Amino acid sequence: MDIDTPALQPAGLLRFHELRADAINAVTERFYANHGDTYSQFGPRGREACREDLAFHLEFLRPVLEFGLLQPMVDYLRWLDSVLSTRDVPSDHLGLSLEWLAEFFSASMQGRDGQTVVKALQKIREQFLEPDTAQPAIYRMMPRRWQESEEFQTALLAGDRRGAGSLLDRCLEQGHGLVDVELHVIQPALYEIGRQWQNNQVTVAQEHLATAISQSVMTQGLMQSTVPASNGKRVLLACVEGNTHAVGLQMVADAFQLSGWDVRYLGASVPTSALLRDLGEFKPALLGLSVSFAHQLPVVKDIIRQLQLHDAPRPAVIIGGLAINQFSRLAETLGADASSPDSRSAVAFATALAAPPDLQ
Q: Residue 75: which of 118, 138, 1 has the closest Cα?
């Protein structure tokens, strides 16, 4: 646990959810009453953007209250601060938003539950306001970047599908495997483009186009790669409901297929009911779930809980994605069997899992 207060019980979480809309409305109106001149530059869209940011605050606050995990929300706020600062929103407004949310819940949520919410918001605010010179975990954990990655990034930002594909072809012709190219060329390029969007240096359209080209090039690379015979093991891969970031999971799917696994890749934002139904039909040895943001953690917990209720043995569960990579202990907290920061380590875990007991 990252905070020294008990997690909310289901009744407290329900009350927190019931107050969500009122909290967003109250703090939004307070911002406009006190700082309306600052937000006038955004026109009618400004008030809606303020509401959206506060809604994300509360989405990230829920796993703090449910699991006691403080750091993901602090990291999110620091990321948001870097985004807003390039758009002329004062940094101290984020601290104010936490202060005013705490005041709202103090007045609206009684007893120990209210104290838990307020204390969590106060702790988050304290940590967020502390100077932070550490490199973000996403960059500390990034695979080593090959020099070809910069050229690939340039092609993506130019919308040059042909150039990006030609660079992939060149890497494959030089003897590099697709998994290595994805890890050391494509992934770092996309991370850097994401950082540039964060700093208001590239547009949303450029970022989306870069993602689309990368996925297309990865498919091209898989078609050119030699896929080994099936090893008889099945893996089902899905982004949990609400997670629309599927490029990393596509890399995981490629790595499994190129290791001989029978892969069922369901892609982005798969509803839990559809996921469970497909699990029953496909009967994989391994289920891989991708989670981008901390507020999607309850979805993972619910999936694993439902699997444990079934009479049949459940598949092993491995989790990954941005929300997981810097907090490996989340696997145990959520009931998963392992977590993995990249496609290669996911396959390594699965290979060890599938090995006969005397070889493990």
A: 138
Within 8 A by CB and 6+ apart from 327, the residues are 69, 71, 72
- Widest CA span of the chain, in angstroms? 70
pLDDT digits (tens, 9 = 90+) for 81-136: 877 777 777 778 899 999 999 999 999 998 999 999 999 999 999 999 887 656 55
Model pLDDT for residues 267-281, shown as the tens digit of each residue: 999 999 999 999 999
* pTM confidence score: 0.75
d(CA 161, CA 156): 7
The total number of residues shown for the chain amounts to: 360
Edge-to-edge, what's the strand order for the sheet holding 316-320?
A: 262-265, 234-239, 286-290, 316-320, 338-339
| Residue whose tokens read 């496609």 | 343
Ramachandran area for residue 321 (φ above 0: left; ψ -120 to 50: alpha; else beta): left
The first and second tokens of residue 324, run together, are: 């997981």
Q: Structure tokens of 329? A: 């202990």
